[in-house]
Amino acid sequence: MQVRAHDFQPRDLVAGDVVLDFVNTVTARDTEPIDWLDDYAALLSWSVLADLPPDAVARLASEAVAHPRRAAHALAGAKVLREALWELLRHDQAEDAVARLTESWRSATTAAVLTGSAGRLEPTARVENSGLAYPEHFVALRAVRLLETLPSVRLRVCGGRHCGWLFLDTSKAGRRRWCDMATCGNAEKTRRHRSVLRP
Fold first, then answer.
1. Measured between alpha carbons, how far is 119 from 106 in angstroms, rounded to an integer?
2. Short-list 183, 142, 113, 164, CA closest to 17
3. Helix axis angle, 40-49 to 54-66, nearest 10°
4. pLDDT in tens, 139-154
5. CATH of 2-197, one of 1.10.3300.10, 1.20.140.10, 2.60.120.1690, 1.20.272.10
6. Contacts 24+ apart (CB under 8 A), 69-76
7. Domain ranges (residues) in the chain
8. Nearest to 31 by CA among 192, 184, 186, 196
9. Which pTM value belongs to this model?
């Protein structure tokens, strides 16, 4: 897998769930995968788009500068979780992937606090407890909730070339093919149009 710097933009979060968007920090899984998380700063850039609290992200940025080895270790842990989620979402209950998710989830729940929302209690990651592992913990807790309720018939893999992103098909007809019509959808339409025009 290539590792390449990427400037994260709102258009990179189109999956319909932040956990799927995290898995999609690897692009072109259908051909030659490219990992956009080239360093811990990139993970924090993604975290800002994922709506992690700005003050928490700023705190992590300072801590990463002060402790680069710990930041690199935290990034590696987040990537292990990401790949476990990819396997689980694409290949159902892969035993080793379940074990890896379990490890992240246990670490996250150990550092989490219970918070109330709409009459329910749920474990919530806190940067004060998680430290540099905060993004990983945030995703791990969300991932377990997603996997408990995921409508698997609505989980899709983008049909675009050099993409392979996951997304939830929330269309009424349930026939969405692209992660985003403005990118992969239009690219495929252009490719088909050109092939028709060729003699």
1. 24
2. 142
3. 180
4. 999 999 999 998 888 9
5. 1.10.3300.10
6. 70/131, 70/132, 71/40, 71/132, 72/40, 73/132, 74/40, 74/43, 74/131, 74/132, 74/133, 74/135, 74/136, 75/37, 75/39, 75/40, 75/43
7. 2-197
8. 184
9. 0.90
